[in-house]
Specification:
This protein is an alpha/beta fold. It folds into 2 domains: 212 residues, Glycerol-3-phosphate (1)-acyltransferase, CATH 3.40.1130.10; 106 residues, no CATH class. Strands 1, 2, 3, 4, 5, 6, 7, 8 and 9 form a 9-stranded mixed sheet that branches. Helix 14 crosses helix 15.
């Protein structure tokens, strides 16, 4: 019940947390089959939240087992259709519980339920595809062994973020091609280990096409800047918030792949040019986005900023408490692991906003003032307006600064920027 109650709130909250979600190829999800969604794992649980809120069917998902140690939280987590999976660090006693977990998953798949599994096994805050664990393949074939369920499908799903810890970043999701285990059953009867490896390799192959992967850790800041200047050339409106498009994801995958394959000397030269370009931007107090999109400094946006300031202010005040609380708790947790940051911020913000808004509604009813009730009902819309307002202000202010550049400096920067194009 709790799962179905929170799912629509998560759907809305994701559109608040992310500036835009690119969501592509959902049409490949097969119908009438149990599905194991095989995801990469850059955050604690944002991937499962995004997928669980958007796929048309209800899904169960795997979650680290130590979160189930508290009986109250364990009850809540089970209500959210989560399944505990234990790691070596949780101890041998806990690790033995994984057989019960797998038996439960086999039973779910036999009932034609759907499971989300984070196939890398461990979360990492980095643009890198880690080795795919064999657990996904073993789960599919284990359900076949135990229940004879031959129609199970493994569906790889690549998930990328422009910045997995930043509020109002962007998420990019694409579904791969379904992997039907019946295509492997004849070989599985004779060589089960080889088939487990084949399935795991196919999951890896499909995810590698859809996950931004930077080989060398020292290249990450440099590649991030190249990805940033590529994004800043993108002209898009504030709406829609959910976009059926994978072209930008593939563009980012391509840029990272090009750098990975680049000769050391060429890469060093490009890195130096990139650093020089960004240093010159800093010296001139401008942003690359403003340089590329000076059209945002216009009369329309100026009027929006002037006339929309009061609604923006009310929206900020109306949503300040849950947003502040979420950020405060996330900031405290980030000292442990960066991968938890966005997940904690998102989860706390969503739940606290629900209780906060319900409290405001009860309070406004108790006052018996119609104008107060109307104002409270408007707060979610004004809060959303405040997000749009900040987006407009960011674009307007950066474009304004770039417009004030003298022509010689601007042309010089554009020339240097052009040299950073990654073919």
């Amino acid at each position: 019940m709790l799962y179905y109650l929170l799912r629509p709130f998560a759907w809305v909250a994701l559109r608040i947390f992310f500036r835009k979600i690119y969501y592509h190829n959902e049409k490949v999800i097969p119908k009438g089959r149990p599905i194991i969604f095989a995801l990469n794992h850059p955050t604690a649980f944002m991937e499962t939240a995004i997928l669980g809120a958007h796929v048309p069917m209800a899904t169960h998902f795997m979650l680290r087992g130590d979160l189930f140690n508290n009986s109250f939280f364990s009850f809540l987590l089970y209500q959210l259709k989560t399944i505990p999976v234990y790691r070596f660090r949780d101890g041998y006693k806990s690790l033995k519980k994984n057989q019960d977990t797998f038996d439960y998953c086999f039973s779910l798949l036999n009932q034609q339920k759907h499971i989300i599994i984070l196939s890398e096994g461990q979360m990492w805050h980095e643009k890198k595809l880690r080795p795919i664990q064999k657990g996904t393949a073993r789960m599919a074939m284990g359900a076949y062994d135990k229940h004879g369920r031959s129609d199970i499908c493994i569906l790889p799903v690549g998930i990328n973020y422009t910045d997995s810890v930043r509020f109002r970043s962007e998420a990019m999701i694409e579904f791969g091609e379904p992997i039907f285990i019946e295509d492997y059953l004849e070989e599985y009867e004779e060589k089960p280990r080889r088939v487990i490896k084949k399935l795991t390799d196919e999951i890896k192959r499909q995810l590698s096409l859809r996950v931004v992967h930077i080989n060398e850790d020292e290249d990450a800041p440099f590649v991030e800047r190249l990805l940033e200047i590529n994004r800043n050339a993108k002209v898009e409106s504030f709406l829609p918030l959910l976009v059926d498009n994978a072209s930008w994801m593939y563009e980012e995958v391509r840029i990272a792949k090009t750098i990975n394959e680049m000769e050391a000397e060429e890469k060093t030269s490009l890195r130096q040019k990139t650093e020089s370009y960004f240093e010159e931007l800093k010296q001139n107090s401008i942003h690359d986005f403003g340089l590329m999109q000076t059209q945002h400094f216009n009369v329309k946006n100026t009027l929006i900023l002037i006339l929309g300031f009061i609604p923006f202010l009310i929206g900020c005040i109306g949503s300040f408490l849950p947003v502040f609380l979420a950020k405060k708790i996330a900031d405290h947790q980030v000292t442990k692991r960066m991968e938890f940051y966005s997940s904690i911020w998102f989860g706390v913000m969503m739940v606290s906003y629900i209780f906060y808004f319900l409290g405001l509604l009860i309070w406004s009813f108790s006052l018996g003032q119609l104008w107060m009730l109307v104002l409270v009902l408007l707060i979610p819309f004004l809060s959303f307006w405040s997000l749009y307002y900040v987006d407009v202000f960011m674009k307007w202010s950066r474009a304004k600064k770039a417009r004030n550049l003298n022509k010689t400096t601007k042309n010089d920067l554009l020339k240097k920027r052009k040299e950073l194009f990654v073919a």
